[in-house]
Amino acid sequence: MAELEVEIVAADHFVWSGPAKMVQARTADGEIGILPGHTPVLAIMYAGDIVIEPVSGSRITATVDGGFFSVDSDRVVIVADNAQIGESAAGTR
C-alpha cells in the first residue's frame, strides 16, 4: 500500500511527522487533498486546519497560522509560521 511521508514544522519547533494515507489543507488556491501518487505541488498555505489521516491511529488535526505546503515524490512538507496539534492527536509522534 502506498503512503505519504508527512512532516509539519513551525518556525520555532517540530510539530509532527509520520506515514499517512491522506492530507488536507487550505491553500491560496483553495482546499487541497493529497493522496499517494499526487503530482508535485508548492503552495502558499492559509491559516486554518490541516487534517491528516495517518496509516495507523485516529485522524490528526493541526491548526496553522499560514506557511508553505510542498508535495514531491509522496513526501509532504508543511512549514508553518505557527502550528499546533489538536487534542485528537494523542499518541502520535
Automatic annotation (TrEMBL):
Matches recorded under NCBIfam families: PRK13442.1
Gene3D superfamilies, per the entry: F0F1 ATP synthase delta/epsilon subunit, N-terminal
Name of the protein: ATP synthase epsilon chain
PANTHER family in alphabetical order: ATP SYNTHASE DELTA/EPSILON CHAIN, ATP SYNTHASE EPSILON CHAIN, CHLOROPLASTIC
Chain's role: Produces ATP from ADP in the presence of a proton gradient across the membrane.
Record domain ATP synthase F1 complex delta/epsilon subunit N-terminal: where: 4-83
SUPFAM superfamilies (alphabetical): Epsilon subunit of F1F0-ATP synthase N-terminal domain
Quaternary structure and partners: F-type ATPases have 2 components, CF(1) - the catalytic core - and CF(0) - the membrane proton channel. CF(1) has five subunits: alpha(3), beta(3), gamma(1), delta(1), epsilon(1). CF(0) has three main subunits: a, b and c.
Subcellular location: Cell membrane
Membrane topology: Peripheral membrane protein
Primary location recorded for the protein, binned into one broad class: membrane
